[in-house]
Amino acid sequence: MQTHKAKRVEIIIEAPMERRLTKALADAGVTGLTVLPVLGGSGRSGRWSREGQVSRAGGMVAVVCLIRPDRLDRLLDAAFEVVERHIGVVSVSDCEVLRAERF
Amino acid sequence: MQTHKAKRVEIIIEAPMERRLTKALADAGVTGLTVLPVLGGSGRSGRWSREGQVSRAGGMVAVVCLIRPDRLDRLLDAAFEVVERHIGVVSVSDCEVLRAERF
Amino acid sequence: MQTHKAKRVEIIIEAPMERRLTKALADAGVTGLTVLPVLGGSGRSGRWSREGQVSRAGGMVAVVCLIRPDRLDRLLDAAFEVVERHIGVVSVSDCEVLRAERF
Amino acid sequence: MGEILSLAANNLISPIILSFALGVFAAFARSDLTIPEAVAKGLSIYLLFAIGFKGGAGVAAHGVDAKLVGSLVAGLVLSAVLPFVAFAMLRAMTKLGTLDAAAVAGHYGSISIVTFVAATSLLNGRGISSEGYMVAVAAVMEAPAILSALWLVVRSGRGADMDAGLMREILLNGSIVLLVGSFAIGWITGEEGLAQISSFIVAPFQGVLCLFLLDMGLVAGRGLRESRGVLGAGAVVFGLTMPLVGCLFGLAAALLLGLSLGGTVLMMTLAASASYIAVPAAMRVALPEANPSIYLTLSLGVTFPFNLTLGIPIYAAIAAAILGG
Amino acid sequence: MGEILSLAANNLISPIILSFALGVFAAFARSDLTIPEAVAKGLSIYLLFAIGFKGGAGVAAHGVDAKLVGSLVAGLVLSAVLPFVAFAMLRAMTKLGTLDAAAVAGHYGSISIVTFVAATSLLNGRGISSEGYMVAVAAVMEAPAILSALWLVVRSGRGADMDAGLMREILLNGSIVLLVGSFAIGWITGEEGLAQISSFIVAPFQGVLCLFLLDMGLVAGRGLRESRGVLGAGAVVFGLTMPLVGCLFGLAAALLLGLSLGGTVLMMTLAASASYIAVPAAMRVALPEANPSIYLTLSLGVTFPFNLTLGIPIYAAIAAAILGG
Amino acid sequence: MGEILSLAANNLISPIILSFALGVFAAFARSDLTIPEAVAKGLSIYLLFAIGFKGGAGVAAHGVDAKLVGSLVAGLVLSAVLPFVAFAMLRAMTKLGTLDAAAVAGHYGSISIVTFVAATSLLNGRGISSEGYMVAVAAVMEAPAILSALWLVVRSGRGADMDAGLMREILLNGSIVLLVGSFAIGWITGEEGLAQISSFIVAPFQGVLCLFLLDMGLVAGRGLRESRGVLGAGAVVFGLTMPLVGCLFGLAAALLLGLSLGGTVLMMTLAASASYIAVPAAMRVALPEANPSIYLTLSLGVTFPFNLTLGIPIYAAIAAAILGG
Ligand SMILES: Nc1ncnc2c1ncn2[C@@H]1O[C@H](COP(=O)(O)O)[C@@H](O)[C@H]1O
Ligand SMILES: Nc1ncnc2c1ncn2[C@@H]1O[C@H](COP(=O)(O)O)[C@@H](O)[C@H]1O
Ligand SMILES: Nc1ncnc2c1ncn2[C@@H]1O[C@H](COP(=O)(O)O)[C@@H](O)[C@H]1O
Ligand code: NA
Ligand code: NA
Ligand code: NA
């Protein structure tokens, strides 16, 4: 099966920032992304868990983007602008995708 | 710790197709997989979000398979058959696994 | 954008073991991790699905850790100790992260 | 006409309709108000269970009517035939291709159980009783329309992914099983069973319906907002006239069968309503190239609100004018 | 015998049992009907809260009985002893290894709160009252069986992952805390508290139970389907006879303590029922090599439906025959 | 004083408060008891809908009071002014920096709807009626405090991520839209509407509130446990005195407006309560560097339990002493 080089970017960010992140990505020309729920985690700002959370304030989401390698930098710049002052992490890995015309 | 080369395949597909995909994968000899929920996303067919969704029609899921590299092609063929006419994305990346006897 | 080499470890494990795993990781100096919900899956011990599950017994979760490469071995040793007798899988892949000071 | 309008106006200021309107407003105002998916599903399970059970208990109380079998057959026929009517109208009124037109048509043969529930509420509010087995008619109308839609596609030489698995999925769709199953439970346990659980399925029913319609409003409103421009004027006109056409088919069937006033209104409502749960899921599997924005927006964003606000009172007025009531 | 059968038949056509049957049917028919996990947990939180509160309010109303402490001790002893009985039976009747047999045995010493609730419903339906503190007895019976099961494994020279953390987890398991906590709240606030919230925890209780049992049926049915062939005939026979053996132990305890007719039926039911929440979770941690398909299928797929349909009426008949009633 | 204590003690043994205490206990004991997020959100949607609707129906029944507009204005002013008071106290009593102090201050200008509901329950229990529009006052008090908090930050020369999007998000926050929307529905449909759905929003209300407070207890308890050591003694003292200061502002406003006894207690409670939903979410966006452990723990872990247990009875006693009642 024919596959094509691409990048997989995973951004874990606070739920109240999700709308801003996806808007920034869209403005940077990133049209494909998937949002996954997150149950809990820990980091420099301590542990948290979704259990019994009444408010959106504490929750996080994971945003996954598959993107052509040459567009990566624009994506990262846009993402960085949003996450800069916020907690959360951004990681990038190499991958191959089917149906390259979709990216 | 001893690790072994493997492939990580991630398929994002419409929820009503999940059963067909896992069946096709099982028929192709893929016995290990994990299904993750998806909250929302955007792509060529526009934006969608799980919020307030009453129907299974709009939702998607992410299926993750860890597999021995030599089995990748059969998996991709089987997956492609199912996703071909449908929206969604397939990506493959290199990884290492513990306990190779499980794959 | 400046990125830094890191490892992405993904551990899929039974929900009742989550607390033990995160504790073991914390004891091994792993302070950053994210826990994602899992809907279902299949493996050597058969198929399962979260649908209608009343009990925590059958569910699983996915734990994702981004970590500096030199700390990987300690993490894997700690994780292996917990998952050893249990069902589930551990995979590791290369990635790049922004904001290396966070890891 | 004046009476219809006054009844419609009366209908419009019920908590149910206003809850729907609140949801639409919140969606258009881009509020982050949401009902969690699990809660929305829980509410719909409650509604299906309650409506099925009460229907079954109604049959147990009033006995099996000679018209029951006739009504079921009429439901099957309506569901199978209406997609052809809808398809012809769509081809005449819109520029939709075969695939999209067939997919939309399938939705209008099938039914919306919440529209049915809203009609029941309105009848209850006016003290009009109806045949309990209309719930079973609703259940049999869910699926046949899907087959008609696929047949329309296959006939035109295009492929549809129809397999035995899909057939099974359609017939054993969760909502059908729950509706038919709770209908059977209500029938078997009868009035005694109803007495045991009526403070769960009767007393709070209207209130639960409000929250559910709030969610429907949110979903419909967000759908309309996201897919602005997807529907041409022709499609919108179709979404408003097709229910009126459908209701006449329902009326004809009800007159043929000699249903009561309440039963007639419900039969008209079923024929007039469009599916937004069972059919879309089946279409995603069988006709993946059909555009979901079109059929979901038409069904949930145009026809559902029309039925909820103006349609049902109109059907009730027509039925009353003809049957006297 | 005839009377038992007629009572059992009567029990079988209640909305509760039929809802369970509907769930099993839907699972076997591979319908996609599901209750979202969050809703199922919400229903079980409601049931635990309601049953605990009502038990506590019952104790507040009728006063602390001299038998309360005795019943709690009896519960502890039953829970600790029954796994040994079950283990011996399993080794005689099946080919299960030590590990699996011990894991299964642990389930039968512990209890199923939904079985308990169903027994309470049946008693209420017949107008038989019972000691409010039986809820507390149910709570103390959850955990000791787990220790017995682990002891059976350790004795045989195999390792079990028992640590202080697990002990704490077992005792502070969410269902135990909620049940005991709401029991305490009901006790403290008494009849006045009950009056405040009775339209929430009393009136809709039976209806909520129907939806919960629908979900239990779905889970049990899917479990049975997935693990077809896992259980040998011997294991199935065990799953049907162990409750009858257990109920006799419960009967003996109740007679010793001089419980009322209702209390006796509940004590028998507790002894006869098998856990499917607290114990499986503990077994996954402590005995990961034991096969969950075996113990979950036996407990949820065989013994639970047996108790729900035939078991409870049988226990009620035995208790009535002995105590008169 | 003795009377206050006895009323407080009476308040303390209600099912509502004890459910909250059970949650805190379970969290501290590290029990795995949890209410699924979706269920917790569902419960809060129910509570907002019910309280809003009943408020609106109350206004419909008793007519629009000349004081309504005055009360809304008073609410706006209180919400905007209290953060300055809180900020000054925080700077004097604690070592918090500008950013953290401003973030905390914003919470105390805004309100906690559950505290409001608990006060309503207490008034209902004592047969004291209140102005239905107090719900609307609660709604207008949610947002202005956020602006004051951001202004405090900007004034000190630090940046706050304030944009039009955030403003819209704050004002169209889900809870505000639901509260105001259901208030409007209740007002429009009036007593007739209330009659239709009262077995959903009135009868089971107290019971639902118990489960919701159980969840609040779990969240507050876990928050306190996780962030042990985050709050200094000064901050804790602030969390206990700020509500008393706030209630006096509320009292002054109520006296100026000439509210009834019940309305006065509610206005005091609103002024005394601190937000833990709308404001934290806004702060995460606008002031990401402020530490959420500080403001969430203070608001949810210190002030909320204080108001629930001692605060409300104290406010009621003060109001009764001044207005006679
Ligand atoms: N190294 C990491 N690996 C995976 N997830 C992380 C990591 N660090 C932080 N996170 C996630 O990001 C959230 C915020 O992290 P922090 O900004 O370090 O407090 C955590 O609660 C985790 O969910
Ligand atoms: N580039 C991408 N990266 C991540 N997810 C994607 C991407 N493109 C599409 N998706 C996911 O697949 C769904 C369908 O995509 P499409 O077929 O492009 O409409 C979207 O809603 C996303 O959830
Ligand atoms: N090859 C695999 N790829 C992805 N997930 C897997 C794989 N094997 C096992 N899993 C996950 O781990 C769980 C337990 O696997 P097992 O230990 O093989 O029974 C499965 O239910 C899956 O969720
Ligand atoms: Na129709
Ligand atoms: Na037992
Ligand atoms: Na305040």
The gist of it:
The complex is a heterohexamer, with three copies of chain A (103 residues) and three copies of chain D (325 residues). Chain A is an alpha+beta fold and 103 residues long.
Q: If you consult CATH, what is the topology of chain D?
A: Na+/H+ antiporter like fold
Amino- and carboxy-terminal Cα gap of chain D = 16 Å
Average pLDDT across residues of chain D? 93
Q: N- to C-terminal separation of chain A?
A: 17 Å
Please state the structural category of chain A. Answer: alpha+beta
CATH architecture of chain D: Up-down Bundle
By DSSP, the count of extended strands of chain A is 6
Subunit organisation of the chains = heterohexamer
Mean pLDDT of chain A: 88
The biggest beta sheet of chain D reads:
none
Annotation field: number of helices of chain D: 15
Number of domains of chain A: 1
Key descriptive features of the protein:
heterohexamer, A: about 100 residues, 4-stranded antiparallel β-sheet, two-stranded antiparallel sheet, about 40% strand, globular, D: about 325 residues, mainly alpha, 15 helices
Description:
Chain A has 103 residues and is of the alpha+beta class. Chain A is built from two helices and six strands. Chain A has one domain: Alpha-Beta Plaits (2-Layer Sandwich). A four-stranded antiparallel sheet of chain A has the order 2-5-1-6, with helices on one face. In chain A, strands 3-4 form a two-stranded antiparallel ribbon. In chain A, strand 3 and strand 4 form a beta hairpin. In chain A, helix 1 runs antiparallel to helix 2. About 5% of the residues of chain A have low confidence. Helix content of chain D is 80%, strand content 0%. Chain D contains 15 helices and no strands. The longest helix of chain D is centred in the C-terminal third of the chain and has 32 residues. The two termini of chain D are 16 Å apart. Classes of the chains: A alpha+beta (103), D mainly alpha (325). Chains in contact: A-B, A-C, A-F, B-C, B-D, C-E, D-E, D-F, E-F. At the D-F interface, helix 2, helix 3 and helix 11 of D face helix 3 and helix 10 of F. The structure holds adenosine monophosphate (3 copies) and sodium ion (3 copies). One sodium ion binds next to helix 5 of chain E.
